[in-house]
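Hey all, sorry for the wall of text incoming. These are the two entities for the joint prediction.
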Amino acid sequence: MEIPYVSKNRPDTGLYNAKLGIWLFLASEVMLFGALFSAYILLRVGADSGTWPHGLLSVPLGTINTLVLIGSSVTVVLSWAALKMNQFGRYKFYQAITILCALIFMGIKTVEYRSKFTHYTVQLQDGTKMDGHIDGSPMFLNLSKLQAKNVEEIKFHPDAPKGEKNAAHPEPQVIKTADIKSLQSWGPWHSTYLAIYFTLTGLHALHVLGGAFVIFMIWGPLSGMWKTDPTRYTNRVEVSGLFWHFVDLVWIFLFPVLYLL
Amino acid sequence: MSLKALHIIFVTCSTLLAFGFGAWSFHAYSHSRAVLDLVMGIVALVVGLGMIVYGRYFLKKLKNISYL
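and here's what came out:
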């Protein structure tokens, strides 16, 4: 039995099956991200005055990632337009750039995440609190792990004082494990801000990975359909492009909210 | 709504972001005097203008494709 409206539009809705399906899916995605954005706003508005952190994220890296995603949306739509004009070679070229952009985005995100996981807040028994890095840049270290490994002391590189122009980094300090009250890397467990940051950007990164995988599959292993059913193939590219645009639009909102405001 | 229509929305949002980010960067530069803030502001403005030019090119190139 042949499935109707896989290539042609259904007369009553004016849509083919996959386009109706992707819009229903995107509606559920809007609800998912909308709920998380609302959670962010409520957490931020509810925070005590002056306690919400600023300047924890790298704006230049976020800017590069924004440019990369904007570029990838342009190549996605140009690849679809190329198929509409029967230019399969151009489609292949543009979509290869899209996949490359997705990989660059994930690479930069990995660098950002790593810089957080190797950044620490240490609180000493005398109440002193410092942010900085531990010698050797270990990830996910905490006090119980130090004690379990019988580490007697750590070399700590404190951050430069915030808000001071051209401030020099203070000298590294050797801190005895016995003097440490708590040690936390800047993971989601560190603070409310980092928890919502990792939740939002982590979920977004999963969407980038998923979208890039689908685009790659259509671009590579499934591209034989272009010869057998070009209209349906073009529709698949459009549907993957719609998802990709949604993912990029989410980032267009995430970037100013998390990095700038 | 077709990819063409969503792309127009995307280009509009990107353009607004670029100009907004440009303003943010210039404001940051006025306080910090850091060259990086100035460079980011200029890049943002160029990207914003580029998106407007691209949007016009895109509309012209895909004028025969439906918005649905």
